[in-house]
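Quick entry between incubations.
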Amino acid sequence: MDSTAAIAARTAPHSHQPARLAGDLAVWFFILAELLAFGVFFIAYAFARAHNPELFAAEQMALNRNTGAINTVLLLTASYFVVCAVHAAEAGRSPVGARWLLAALACAGSFVAVKSAEYAAAFSAGISLSSSTFHMFYLSLTFFHFMHVILGMVILGALWVNARKGRYHAHNLNGLESGAAYWHMVDLVWLVLFPLVYVIR
Amino acid sequence: MRHDIRSADRRSTVLWVLLIIATVLTWAVGEGGAGGPAIATLLLGIALLKGTAVILDFMAIGRAPLLWKLITLGWLALVCALIGLAYWKGIP
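Done. Structure below.
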């Protein structure tokens, strides 16, 4: 259950609400740690590319930007569905929230399927971590993110089970908001990763 | 309260549509094959705007204490700025 202050903050009209972090503080610390790790990875990629822009541009052009863009749309849509789930639970419609979470899970599963196909194509073309500096970054960065998507699906699944049981409502949103914040982090990181690795040359 | 949630729903829906449009724009630039620091800056700018929308609205940081706004938006701005620097630095 949430604290009295959190409930008061939520049930007050929005314009008069005191500032409040949506979700558990410990989860947010974890999110910040993940953001730092991805940030370092992104900056390392950008500076490694500066040493050899021609090689990076040539190998980047060979990537499939269509699947990259489709995956971006899938993650954004999953995030939007998670937002809808939180709003539904807040309005006392936990079962409706559960359906939104299931829709988000479907998008996340589609991302995993598209990405797996992309990896299969890369491996069949003989691409590996040792192929080139670009491919080392491409494979490790995207796979690091891929693992976060898998964990995100486990979290969304757990939220879905709880939402179906009607556990989330205006007075108990902490678990749902914490899981939602993690999922949005996975989405946020991809919003930088997609242009960086697939498009910017 | 119900009314507030409905308006929040509307705002998130509008942002989701804008995020999809921005994604298509990024994809189109990529397919066009344009490159260079100016294009890199444009694409990083789009990523910055998209990230800001996700942080403030989806992650509800817009309603969080100022320190959390600074930490999360600061992370995004710093990462985009350093990536931008690496692309400008590559000019002979």
